[in-house]
Design a protein that fits this description.
The structure holds two protein chains of two kinds.
Chain A lengths: L1 H23 L2 H27 L8 E5 L8 E4 L2 H24 L13 H19 L3 H19 L7 H33 L4 H8 L4 H19 L8 H7 L2 H27 L4 H24 L3 H28 L3 H36 L10 H4 L1 H14 L6 H15 L6 H33 L6 H4 L6 H19 L5 H11 L16 E4 L2 E4 L4 E3 L1 H22 L25 H11 L1 H4 L2 E8 L6 E9 L3 H21 L7 H20 L1
Antiparallel strand pairs in A: 1-2, 3-4, 4-5, 6-7
Helix pairs in contact in A: 1-2, 1-4, 2-3, 2-4, 3-4, 3-10, 3-13, 3-19, 4-5, 4-10, 5-6, 5-10, 6-7, 6-8, 6-9, 8-10, 9-10, 9-12, 10-12, 10-13, 11-12, 11-17, 12-13, 12-16, 12-17, 13-15, 13-16, 13-19, 13-20, 15-17, 15-19, 16-17, 16-19
Chain B lengths: L1 H10 L36 E7 L5 H9 L11 E3 L8 E5 L2 E2 H13 L5 E5 L1 H5 L9 E3 L1 H4 L4 E3 L6 H12 L2
Helix pairs in contact in B: 2-6
The chains are: A mainly alpha, B alpha/beta.
């Protein structure tokens, strides 16, 4: 217990020091000082998370408390395995992003860039601190305080580069601010209902009181939580801020937003759903499953056809959050059907996928930032040829892409394998609905996995391989050491998670067992109640009898490759000749002849045109003589279909209403005085009644 | 579908019966290099991938090549197959006198083919410029640009001669 308190105290110290450094240190050294302190802050959070995952905290024990001035405004900090996992996620991603940021926020001559200003570094420290507060929050007030600090700080960070990219950044900021605050209102509403019902603000008290809540209250809380936390997590149709805000934020901020902040939406759903409201609700589980499946499919489809690198990564975040929600939803459905062991495996899969996604998405965003800094370009159609000019960045992006595509020897593969096992074996639970829903979920998962491979092959192949398609790409140079170190940190964690998942799985079992209702809250986890057992470095699923040994696969691969290479060197006839690439015998190949990102994705775009609905504009200009065409102009814009179909009409109607309401304010003082008089009259009449 | 089946039954087999096998090593009438290059295994074990290059022909030879790969003479039954890229080719089939514009592409095609590769000069124009000898646009014979292993005389050569030349390489 004292370890937790000490770590919490050190964490607060580091956060304050980082904030002060952001303001006080002179410009020349600001990035280094503030970046190092934020990295320490993240690292301490990760250590605290690891301590909690290892089960060293007494369950439901309060680590720190502060009595607030009003009832229900107490701030309580409590660290259990579930919050430990999210502390680990936040800590690893923030530490890597901060190390990366020490060089990214500095221009080559040493002066700070737009993202190295005092505001930005202070906001970054506050952002990480807010997220960590949400993870350790043990009372509703602490949770909401941390949530709002996180939201405001991230808004400031999104608006960092408003001077260079006015329109896109301000648009992104507006959408982000609007949706975040509406989500906060929904979360506030959910907590308010729970606190009113329980009469206390502490999360333990909420859990005990929620057992006696009527169905109406449960449905209301569930709906509000789904809207509020779903919009933060990026669930379709509340995801529209994601592809706008993540590309415009500075890259190290995008990494933390995608890797850690959207996960806190999932954390909120896990706290309010399985933890507080209990495992009883099958409808809630089915709703999560459906939302997750829709997000996964829609997200990866948009990622496949995206030509902006960071927009592709942002949509891929939507897809992965969808997969996590499929796991959570399946866990709920199975737990309410009585299959607590399978439900625990489902939660382990979902939690492992949040950890894996944080590492590989963070790495991908940092690498994209490295590319942006070197070339000034985010458009895949104009990149290319970077593998020879930026070998480290290309290799690290390749590792991230392999993990994101969920291919073997990546860490995405381990969590998707677990999820697939649960869905395939989950058909035994009760009900016709489950028997129909689980195979459908398997089909969605399979389609998403295939499309994810296509999306990341496109991102890596078109962005890094072949030849440079534009002048900016030709002038690329490798990133400085600090940026490579930050990326390397995440790549190392990907390697550990991919090859030896048994390192984290016992901790995840503890978190999942609590959620799946295998043990009452407050009891320590028993050894043989674990569902996903570590087997050496790999995993074994106890009720199903399935095994996964990535370390064995890696060792075999290295052995076979090494054997073949040795045999080729011993018995082969090595003969190297230089040759020109075949260009049909005519002129040399130019980059104009390469695949572009648009052409690579065009077959898929045609197949899914009804879902994606691109805006196409074709203009044929003829000379005065008919049939003699002077020019053909074709323009295609791939916007967000949900935004165009659902949000635009509502926003247009709102604007029309606002326009008409302007007639209420004609500018004449007499009218305003008349309004005040009428209001006074109304109040007097109302009071006297 | 039924109409096709009925037509197939009515017309029957179009392909002519296979004539006797020519000796492996080629009936070449005095090419600059007798027989085939050293590295090329005899007969290419029954299959050869052919890349055709028109270096400046009148298209008469091309029509005969099309006939040779058609249903009547069917060169594919002996293992010869037309491929699109010289990277996949074992044999480059050149027709026509080499014009100035096609000299460099012909050299690049030959350079792009993986070794061992054989070159067949098809028709009188490929062998010695034929009726176009001395024209202002003609650079020379095929043997002046790339080394030739096998020649097929004729203007144009009959499809049976083309098939016999390919069979001498595949050994089938």
């Amino acid at each position: 217990m004292s370890t937790v308190r000490m770590l919490l105290a050190l964490l607060c110290l580091a956060a304050s020091a980082a904030g002060v450094a952001g303001v006080a240190v002179p410009a020349r050294h600001r990035s280094l000082a503030a970046g190092t302190l934020v990295a320490v802050q993240g690292g301490l959070g990760a250590v605290l998370g690891a301590v909690a995952l290892a089960g060293a905290t007494a369950p439901d024990a309060v680590a720190w408390a502060w009595r607030g001035p009003l009832p229900h405004l107490d701030l309580v900090a409590r660290v259990d395995p579930l919050s430990g996992l999210f502390l680990l996620v936040i800590g690893v991603v923030s530490a890597a992003a901060a190390v990366y940021g020490t060089a990214y926020t500095r221009q080559p001559d040493g002066s700070p860039a737009a993202s190295g200003s005092r505001t930005t570094w202070t906001a970054f420290a506050a952002f990480v601190a807010g997220m960590q507060l949400v993870a350790v929050a043990g009372s509703a007030a602490a949770f909401l305080l941390g949530w709002e600090v996180m939201a405001v700080a991230s808004l400031v960070l999104v608006l960092t580069e408003h001077r260079e990219h006015r329109v896109a950044v301000t648009g992104a900021g507006l959408w982000y601010a609007g949706m975040t605050q509406l989500g906060f209102l929904a979360v506030l509403g959910a907590f308010a209902v729970l606190v009113a019902h329980a009469g206390a603000g502490d999360l333990v008290a909420l859990r005990e009181a929620a057992a006696t809540a009527e169905p109406g209250v449960r449905v209301l809380v569930g709906a509000l939580a789904l809207v509020g936390f779903g919009s933060k997590a990026g669930v379709v149709p509340l995801h529209v801020w994601l592809p706008r805000a993540h590309p415009e934020a500075p890259s190290h901020v995008s990494a933390v937003m995608s890797g850690a902040m959207v996960k806190l939406g999932v954390y909120g759903l896990l706290r309010i759903g399985p933890d507080i409201a209990g495992t009883g609700s099958r409808a809630w589980g089915l709703a999560l499953l459906g939302a997750g499946a829709a997000s996964a499919l829609y997200g990866i489809l948009q990622a496949v056809v995206a030509t902006d690198l960071k927009r592709l990564l942002a949509y891929s975040t939507t897809e992965n959050v969808g997969l996590v929600l499929i796991g959570v939803g399946a866990g709920q459905v199975l737990a309410s059907g009585g299959r607590h062991d399978l439900a625990a495996v489902a939660y382990v899969a979902a939690l492992l996928h949040t950890l894996n996604h944080a590492t590989f998405k963070g790495l991908l965003f940092l690498a994209a930032g490295s590319v942006l800094r070197a070339t000034g370009l985010r458009d895949l159609n104009r990149l290319g040829g970077l593998a020879s000019r930026m070998p480290w960045t290309a290799a690290l992006f390749g590792i991230g892409a392999l993990a994101a595509a969920a291919l073997p020897l990546g860490n995405g593969f381990v969590s998707e394998w677990l999820l697939l096992q649960v869905l395939v074996h989950g058909q035994g639970a009760d009900g016709v609905t489950t028997a129909l829903v689980m195979p459908a979920a398997v089909a969605v998962l399979a389609l998403t996995a295939g499309l994810a491979v296509a999306a990341f092959v496109k991102a890596f192949g078109i962005g890094f391989l072949a030849r440079a398609r534009d002048v900016g790409a030709e002038r690329a140079v490798e990133a400085p050491v600090a940026m490579r170190a930050g990326m390397g940190l995440l790549a190392a964690s990907i390697a550990v998670l991919a090859v030896a998942p048994s390192v984290v799985v016992p901790g995840l079992d503890r978190a999942a067992a609590l959620l799946a209702g295998q043990l009452a809250a407050g009891e320590p986890a028993a050894g043989d109640a674990l569902a996903a057992r570590p087997l050496g470095a790999g995993l074994e699923l106890a009720g199903i009898g399935a095994r996964l040994q990535p370390l064995l696969v890696l060792v075999l691969l290295v052995a076979v490759a090494g054997g073949v290479a040795a045999a080729a060197r011993r018995w082969g006839r090595p003969r190297r000749t230089g040759a020109l690439p075949w260009g049909c015998g005519g002129q040399r190949l130019s980059p104009r002849m390469e695949y572009t990102a648009t052409s690579f994705a065009e077959p898929l775009q045609r197949v899914f045109a009804e879902v994606l609905r691109p805006e196409q504009d074709l203009a044929v200009i003829e000379t005065p003589a008919p049939y003699l065409i002077e020019q053909v102009r074709f323009r295609q814009r791939m916007g967000d279909a949900v935004e165009r179909v659902a949000y635009r009409p509502a926003l247009d109607r709102l604007l029309a209403l606002a326009e008409r309401a302007r007639r209420l304010a004609p500018g004449s003082v007499h009218t305003y005085v008349g309004y005040a008089f009428a209001a006074l009259l109304l109040v007097l009449v109302g009071v006297s009644l | 579908m039924l109409r096709l089946a009925r037509r197939l039954r009515r017309v029957g087999r179009l392909t002519e019966p296979a004539p006797p096998r020519p000796p492996a090593g080629g009936p070449g009438a005095g090419g600059p290099r007798e027989g085939l290059p050293e590295g090329l295994p005899e007969g290419l074990h029954g299959s050869v991938q052919v890349r055709h290059v028109d270096a400046g022909s009148c298209n008469g030879c091309e029509i005969e090549i099309a006939a040779a790969f058609g249903p009547v003479y069917d060169a594919e039954q002996y293992g010869a197959r037309l491929v699109a890229s010289p990277r996949h080719a074992d044999l480059i089939l050149v027709t026509g006198a080499v014009t100035r514009n096609m000299a460099e592409p012909l050299r690049q095609t030959h350079a792009a083919a993986p070794r061992p590769v054989a070159v067949v000069a098809l028709g009188d124009c490929a062998r010695d410029c034929g009726v176009f000898a001395g024209g202002y646009g003609v650079e020379g014979r095929v043997a002046d640009i790339v080394p030739v292993d096998l020649e097929v005389p004729g203007c144009p050569p009959r499809p049976e001669a083309i098939v016999a030349a390919l069979r001498s390489v595949t050994g089938r």
